[in-house]
């Protein structure tokens, strides 16, 4: 089988295409013929040696997100059959409940080998069934970005409900799924970008209000104006410390800020959090239980993930370069034929 590995992690050029024997499933394992994989900002940080959770072992197979079909099962496998369409969960042993210290050690593409390979072995517990209306390419976008957005909006103390307002920063994978989930819930979505073309696109996809943060650098004031001074109920905060103070100011008293990204640096003053009684949640993807809940909602509302561009397996480096350019809207996908 063909697969990509990372002999070292200094640059995108370190992605190395090679071959290994196709594995066979042991007891409780499932062999999946991967059909598509998708990229997250985490994957770019890992490949370039900038991952905040530390480096990865030499020759690690990258990427956490992928979808394919079951081609062989080991003994005692009861959850899946040959031919089932599946996706792996981000942390292979976080099945439900609260996250604990053991879960990050099972994260695909980081602590353990990922999915940028023609075949991948999974424990049967580390997979979910794809919604029937999604293609493999669409299904491959779900494990990290979509589950992260779902966790942010639905797994906290105040789950999103109809009539709530949501602020979404940027137009990457997490924010685009957040937009789709907000629209499905009947919530008001306010989205930011530095590109008017991207803002026009998100309005087509259902955003109620948009803000060009380059033209409006004090965008928190515009959020407050749009909400008649109240602020939003939820913030999907993917920027990090550099944007967090404005996200807090954009929140209503007692609102919820879901901290996901680390795109910008800076210092955080906790005074504003206390003053506004904001609930701050650090989000690290989510569990299989969340994934399955989300898939039921995706099926019910026939949600189709937003894919910016698809690359061939042999062009994986180009896919990473496209992600690095920050020109994408939605997800970047690699097909595995």
UniProtKB/TrEMBL annotation:
Q: Which SMART domains match?
A: PKS_ER
Q: Which Pfam families does the record cross-reference, listed alphabetically?
A: ADH_N (PF08240), ADH_zinc_N (PF00107)
Q: Which molecular function GO terms apply here?
A: oxidoreductase activity
| Entry-linked CDD domains | MDR7
| Coiled-coil annotated spans | none
Q: Which residues form the Enoyl reductase (ER) domain?
A: 10-334
- InterPro entries from the UniProt entry: ADH-like_C (IPR013149), ADH-like_N (IPR013154), ER (IPR020843), GroES-like_sf (IPR011032), NAD(P)-bd_dom_sf (IPR036291), Zinc_ADH-like (IPR052711)
Name the record gives this protein: NADPH:quinone reductase-like Zn-dependent oxidoreductase
């Amino acid at each position: 089988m063909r697969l990509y590995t990372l002999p070292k992690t200094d640059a995108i050029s370190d992605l190395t295409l090679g071959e290994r024997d196709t594995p066979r499933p042991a007891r409780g394992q499932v062999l999946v013929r991967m059909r598509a994989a998708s990229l997250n900002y985490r994957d770019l940080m890992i490949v370039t040696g900038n991952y905040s959770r530390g480096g990865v072992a030499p020759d690690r197979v990258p990427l956490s997100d992928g979808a394919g079909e079951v081609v062989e099962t080991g003994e005692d496998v009861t959850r899946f059959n040959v031919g089932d369409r599946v996706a792996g969960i981000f942390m292979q042993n976080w099945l439900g409940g609260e996250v604990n210290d053991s879960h990050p050690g099972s994260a695909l593409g980081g602590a353990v080998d990922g999915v940028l390979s023609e075949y991948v072995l999974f424990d049967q517990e580390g997979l979910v069934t794809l919604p029937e209306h999604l293609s493999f390419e669409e299904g491959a976008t779900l494990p990290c970005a979509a589950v992260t957005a779902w966790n942010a909006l639905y797994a906290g103390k105040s789950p999103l409900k109809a009539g709530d307002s949501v602020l979404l920063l940027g137009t990457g994978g997490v924010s685009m799924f957040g937009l789709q989930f907000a629209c499905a819930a009947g919530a008001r979505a306010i989205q930011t970008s530095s590109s008017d073309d991207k803002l026009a696109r998100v309005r087509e996809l259902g955003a109620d209000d948009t803000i060009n943060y380059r033209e409006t650098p004090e965008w928190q004031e515009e959020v407050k104006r749009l909400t008649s001074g109240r602020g939003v109920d939820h913030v999907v905060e993917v920027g990090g410390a550099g944007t967090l103070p404005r996200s807090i100011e954009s929140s209503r008293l007692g609102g919820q800020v879901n901290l996901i990204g680390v795109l910008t640096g800076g210092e955080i003053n906790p005074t504003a959090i206390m003053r506004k009684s904001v609930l701050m949640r650090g989000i690290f993807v989510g569990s299989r239980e969340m994934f399955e809940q989300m898939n039921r909602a995706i099926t019910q509302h026939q949600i189709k993930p937003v894919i910016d561009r698809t690359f061939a397996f042999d062009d994986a480096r180009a896919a990473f370069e496209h992600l690095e350019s920050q020109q994408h809207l939605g997800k970047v996908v690699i097909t595995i034929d």
